Structure formats: structure tokens, C-alpha cells
Amino acid sequence: MIEHDIPEQSLVLEVVIGFLYPFMLLLGFFIILNGHHTPGGGFQGGSVLAALFIARYVVYPVHDVNSEKMHMFQRIFIALILLTPMVFLFTGFIHRFPEYRSLYLLVMNVLIGFQVGMEIGVAILRFAFFQGVGKTWRL
Predict the structure, then answer these.
(1) How many Cα atoms sit within 13 Å of 111 on the Cβ side?
(2) pLDDT average, residue stretch 80-100
(3) Least CB-packed of 13, 96, 113, 135 within 10 Å?
């Protein structure tokens, strides 16, 4: 029987993800903040931000994120996602002041982006730590 001496972490993976991490963060925020002018928006930017959770876990597989706090923030963002259209659209504010339409779209993109990022991040963390995979999962 041949034993393979597999290192705990890949140095190449750590360096590449460490280099790409700030660019992924900037790209996620750029997509969210410019989604009302360009293709993209909250969901796409949130997916890029969720990739940060996945990349962080792949490089540093420690469960130090409080998922209950993340769920609390998700509930707050869902409430804000539901209340924002009520304030902007149902009150007629956008029809009376059409110059604030970009502000409405920006707010919705930010709320949806953070909601999607947290939701996918929590799903990945739950899968990794509560489904028996834990620290044994490696790329």
C-alpha cells in the first residue's frame, strides 16, 4: 500500500486566492454598484461576493463565522428588500420624482447583492461544517 504525503494546504492555492481576493471584492462591489447602468446587478455581484466565502473556506477551513448572526442579517435584508419598493414605488415617490429612480435601483442592487452573498455563503458553510464534510474537504 502506497501512502501519499498530501500537504495540509496547497501553497499555490493560498497565494493565488490571496492575490485575487481584493480584486474579487472590488469586482463584486463594482457589479452591485453599477448594475443599474450596466449588465449585472445585485444577484450577480452577490454571487461574486459569495465566492469570497468559498475561497476563504478553501484556503482557511475554520468555522469562525456565526451563522446565527448571518441569519439575523438575512432577515433584516429581506425586510428591507420588501419595504424599499413599498416606500419608493407604492407611495408614488418615483413617479413624482423620476430623478430618484437611479437611487432606488442602487439601493435595491445593494440589498439584493448582500442578501445573495450572505445566503450562498451560509449555504456553503452549512454544507461544509454541518453535513459531515468539515475540514476533510480539499480541492
Answers:
(1) 17
(2) 88
(3) 96
Report d(CA 35, CA 71) in Å as an integer.
25
The Cα 65–Cα 86 span in angstroms is 32
Rounded to the nearest 10°, the torsion over CA 67, 77, 33, 58 is: 10
> By the 8 A CB rule, do 112 and 46 touch?
yes
Burial class (CB in 10 A: 0-12, 13-18, 19+), 43: middle
CA distance 108 to 13: 34
Q: Once rounded to an integer, what is the mean pLDDT over residues 87-99?
A: 86
- φ/ψ region of 92 (left if φ > 0, alpha if ψ in -120 to 50, else beta) reads left
Distance CA 24, CA 31 (A): 10
Q: What's the pLDDT at 1?
A: 44
Q: Helical H runs in 1-139?
A: 11-33, 42-59, 67-85, 93-96, 101-130
DSSP 34: T
**Could you tell me the pTM of the whole model?**
0.74
